[in-house]
């Protein structure tokens, strides 16, 4: 991976975060997300701002052997693509960012096999063989164009096998069109299947009606149940879009558990610059959403300590990242290791940005490296002035590029509140529950 540029860290950016849990006193060293337990006297020295303690925190935040510096703009090889195979959808979801697959007429025709195969070939030509590669399917609803999905899986599998790649697949679907052939496809390949489902019948039908205006929940339940019972090689997860009108997350979570999902993640509907939505969370909604998410998480923690697997992916992912010392100047792989291919073969940094010139970085013939470098440099967390004073900057990384322009104090307070809860949870989990979820402590700081 080459480094093309550096973006200096803002002056006076916080280097550490002190917090407490029922297990004691702790320190998060912000760069590289190093988590330490503190003896009471050391905690007091940090709280008093003692010079020696502060100097120690700065030292602990230096990059170690084999670690990437956090002020660099890397240029990794593409390892993951999503193919926008369909420009239409059989549902008419109230909040759809893709205009049912047309992206406001930016994508008016379905992808062809020629375009899809060329995208796969470009990915395999540029990707690193020592790392897995992923080909994903999006739309619209991908299974509107199921013939292409099946064809690409066969083509990519053969091409990857001949070139020595470890190939994975992903698909985001509303689940209502799955047939027996589709189920066999995802069961027999390593598929991450994300099912868009917003709760029980009432909430789901209100937010995700069919194109004819009828509810889609019963059809979803009928078509997804066989996969939930027998997933094969597939990993199946529910993705819930939460609007400001349905903030009872414990109820939504229980409804989806009853459906049979073993992985459930919540995503709040946020305002996007240029596309505000009446159902997006507002300032007064964020504390309610945080409280509801924590209530679900606490119930999950009780289950985990009894030996049950975590179902709430928001919590599972956060604990895994904290345990691994995750620390990044970018919130996702957009424009780095990940690209989304439109039906006409143009490559975008994000699947939400099809048709947006600022996110268009190339096509099936290759990337515009100069534009890619400018895109990544402008979106480095150090380039975001309001992130410079935040202790969570390398865990949040400034949030989704599409939503950054509408970021608010209240939405950032939600992120900090959720991360504080997860940090405390990582310190409180007893063994063997902690080891089952994450190896959470990186040391004991005797400041």
Automatic annotation (TrEMBL):
Name the cofactor(s). Answer: [4Fe-4S] cluster
Q: Radical SAM core domain location, by residue? A: 75-303
What protein is this chain from?
Answer: Radical SAM additional 4Fe4S-binding domain protein
Question: Which SUPFAM superfamilies does its entry note?
Answer: Radical SAM enzymes
The species this protein belongs to is: Microvirga lotononidis
A molecular function (GO) held by this record is: oxidoreductase activity
Enumerate the UniProt keywords alphabetically. Answer: Iron, Iron-sulfur, Metal-binding, S-adenosyl-L-methionine
Which InterPro entries does its entry note? 4Fe4S-binding_SPASM_dom, Aldolase_TIM, rSAM, rSAM_sf, Sulphatase_maturase_rSAM
A matching Pfam family: Radical_SAM
Q: Which domain of life is it from?
A: Bacteria
């Amino acid at each position: 991976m080459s480094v093309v540029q550096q973006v200096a860290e803002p002056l006076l950016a916080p280097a550490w975060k002190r917090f407490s849990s029922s297990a004691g006193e702790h320190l998060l060293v912000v760069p590289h997300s190093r988590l330490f337990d503190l003896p009471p006297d050391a905690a007091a020295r940090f709280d008093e701002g003692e010079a020696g303690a502060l100097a120690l925190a700065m030292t602990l935040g230096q990059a170690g052997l084999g670690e990437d510096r956090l002020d660099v703009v890397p240029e990794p090889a593409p390892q993951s693509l999503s193919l926008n195979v369909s420009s239409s959808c059989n549902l008419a979801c109230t909040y759809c960012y893709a205009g049912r697959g047309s992206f406001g007429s930016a994508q008016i025709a379905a992808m062809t096999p020629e375009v899809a195969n060329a995208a796969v070939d470009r990915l395999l030509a540029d990707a690193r063989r020592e790392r897995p590669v992923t080909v994903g399917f999006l739309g619209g609803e991908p299974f509107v164009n199921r013939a292409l999905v099946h064809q690409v899986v066969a083509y990519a599998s053969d091409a990857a096998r001949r070139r020595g790649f470890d190939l994975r697949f992903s698909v985001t679907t509303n689940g209502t069109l799955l047939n027996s052939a589709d189920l066999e496809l995802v069961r027999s390949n390593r598929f991450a299947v994300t099912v868009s489902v917003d709760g029980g019948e009432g909430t789901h039908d209100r937010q995700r009606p069919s194109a004819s205006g009828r509810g889609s929940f019963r059809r979803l339940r009928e078509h997804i149940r066989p996969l939930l019972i027998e997933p094969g090689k597939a990993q199946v997860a529910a993705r819930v879009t939460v609007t400001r009108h349905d903030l009872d997350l414990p109820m939504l979570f229980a409804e989806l558990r009853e459906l049979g999902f073993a992985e459930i993640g919540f995503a709040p509907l946020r305002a996007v610059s240029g596309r505000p939505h009446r159902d997006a969370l507002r300032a007064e909604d964020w504390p309610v959403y945080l409280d509801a998410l924590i209530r679900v998480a606490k119930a999950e923690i009780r289950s985990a300590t009894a030996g049950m697997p975590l179902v709430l992916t928001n919590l599972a992912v956060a604990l895994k990242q904290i345990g691994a010392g995750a620390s990044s100047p970018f919130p996702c792989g957009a424009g780095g290791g990940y690209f989304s291919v439109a039906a006409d073969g143009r490559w975008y940094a994000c699947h939400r940005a099809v048709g947006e010139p600022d996110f268009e970085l190339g096509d099936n013939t290759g990337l515009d490296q100069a534009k890619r470098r400018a895109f990544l440099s402008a979106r480095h967390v150090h380039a975001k002035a309001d992130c410079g004073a935040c202790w969570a900057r390398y865990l949040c990384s400034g949030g989704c590029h599409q939503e950054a322009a509408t970021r608010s104090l209240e939405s950032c307070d939600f992120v900090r509140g959720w991360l504080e809860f997860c940090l405390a949870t990582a310190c409180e989990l007893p063994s063997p529950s902690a080891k089952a979820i994450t190896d959470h402590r990186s040391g004991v700081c005797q400041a």
